Protein: Transcriptional regulator
Organism: Oceanobacillus chungangensis
Amino acid sequence: MKTTQQCQFSRGKNVMVNSLNILFTSSGRRVSLINKFKDVYEEYNIEGKIITADVKQNAPTAFISDKHYILPSINHENYLTELLSLCIRENISLIIPLIDTELPLFAFNKQIFSEYGVKLLVSGMELNEIAGDKNKTYNFFVSNNISTPKVYSKEELRRNEYNFPLLLKPYDGSSSKGVTLITNEEELNFFKSYIPNAMVQEFITGEEYTVDVMVDFGGNVKTIVPRLRLETRAGEVSKGITRKDITIINAVKGVVKALPDPVGCITIQCIKKENGDIKFIEINPRFGGGIPLTIEAGANFPLWVIEMSQGKVFTDQYFGWKDNITMLRYDEAIFTEKILQ
């Protein structure tokens, strides 16, 4: 991932903010999340616009936002310049990135955006590097005495120091792509060479949770909401239920405390074994796909994001969200007469 694109703008004074305009980048299909922000704007009479950007003009979010812009790919040399131009044109106060590949670039260039009066809902560079490489995630857990499934080294694999079943996945993957259950030597040998950047780890069974954490710009936690994953599709939860599990909440507090420079929504995944042990498996420092369930349960992430963007510090925590709220997701369609590519 490129993090050092050259910006063609001179470093001038901060842009004056007359209203709160939020830009969601790589907005794609995140209709539910953006609608939650629109609801807060309406409920609290917040002035401003919800703007989306994507590489495609036919992204579903283009039809629910106030404005939609086409941006080049994140790896394009002009991406940063075009994004900053958009921010100036639309007087953007806050950018909320929605895919993993954007995060390192934004984290690296926080200061440039700050000079134009634009805040980024993005954690620090070190945290994004930890989250973007599952080997680094594993090392972070181990070095901070956080329980996690064992990842086998090349030497351990060579010496056959493991027991089946195993879990194999790309260390730089996302959305569960390439995640494969391994039950014998033949499968292990094949998938190690078939799946790029493969890592092999201990296979853990139990209830899988995604935990949404809200953190302000100073690292203060507002809330922690565990969601039991009942069913997933393409790596994203399609059925889930909120669980006010105090053992998970307390364990996640320890993880967040160890994270370097967490900001915004931090999504942490863990497995709770039958004996109650909690094993942490993944960190995603952005809004996860299942966040609408957390918001619906009463954890008002959109409002808190808006408040922290205006300088509010979270001095108190909130755990009044509803337990056992279930989400059952299904496809909806947007119909338009526009000619789209």
